Task: inverse folding
């Protein structure tokens, strides 16, 4: 099932996507719900952020190629992690499909994308084992972990490099039925493919991260875990359009624009 948050006629609600149509739903996917009568064309609605997570977890250094390329740029030998590395991102950075990523006026040219599989939690969970780790997973969506690499190197933390407003596009919807082993992530910049990798070809898969997280934290319905990326990104500039397609889910598309002054933007 494909769950969408959308706005039409001034009202925002959940819906179920079937083909190129969306059927409005009363309630929400994490509780009781029922289908409403009638449907709308997807082209006629505003696709919203799939959800606002209670906690926004992220995975670092989870693909070997990405790890190696980063180490090569530093002239170092890759340091492959021996356990899942977990961090956080900020809610203020989240935007929806087809909304604009704003490049801050003080940013350098080192603006990069990271196409990521996003795991959406559907049940309260604590102390899960590998055998039952997937029992709390509701579905999957797509994320673009935008980064300003100069700031990432200069700062002790990732407070602005990863979490500036609009730096975390997510969407377009939540897909509950996927085959992880058959999934491929393809990233295009201005319609031209720039990266492709097997989505599930991770150093640590989804289960180990859920096991590690639930040793210390309670997972709640609507929490998300961004699972990292592979490969490298070109330097992005204002006017570029980044599309991230993941097999079985769909395509997340966002245009990058330049901030010209506080409160204004220019492509």
Result:
């Amino acid at each position: 099932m494909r769950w969408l948050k959308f706005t039409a006629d001034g009202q925002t609600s959940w819906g179920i996507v079937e083909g190129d149509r969306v059927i409005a739903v009363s309630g929400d996917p994490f509780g009781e719900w029922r289908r409403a009568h009638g449907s709308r064309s997807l082209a006629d609605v505003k696709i919203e952020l799939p959800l606002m997570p209670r906690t926004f977890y992220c995975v670092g250094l989870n693909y070997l190629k990405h790890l190696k390329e980063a180490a090569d740029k530093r002239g170092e030998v890759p340091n492959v992690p021996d356990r899942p590395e977990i961090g956080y991102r900020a809610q203020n950075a989240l935007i929806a499909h087809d909304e604009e990523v704003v490049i801050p006026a003080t940013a350098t040219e080192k603006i990069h994308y990271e196409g990521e599989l996003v795991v959406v939690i559907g049940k309260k969970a604590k102390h899960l084992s590998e055998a039952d780790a997937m029992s709390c997973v509701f579905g999957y969506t797509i994320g673009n972990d935008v980064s300003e690499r100069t700031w990432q190197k200069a700062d002790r933390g990732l407070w602005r490099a990863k979490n500036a407003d609009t730096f975390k596009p997510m969407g377009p919807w939540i897909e509950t039925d996927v085959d992880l082993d058959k999934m491929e992530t393809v990233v295009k910049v201005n319609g031209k493919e720039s990266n492709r990798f097997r989505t599930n070809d991770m150093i640590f898969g989804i289960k180990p991260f859920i096991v590690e997280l639930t040793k210390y934290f309670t997972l709640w319905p609507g929490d998300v875990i961004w699972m990292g990326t592979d490969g490298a990104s070109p330097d992005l500039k204002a006017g570029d359009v980044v599309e991230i397609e993941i097999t079985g889910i769909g395509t997340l598309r966002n245009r990058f624009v330049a901030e010209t002054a506080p409160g204004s933007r220019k492509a």
Summary: DSSP finds three helices and 21 strands in the chain.
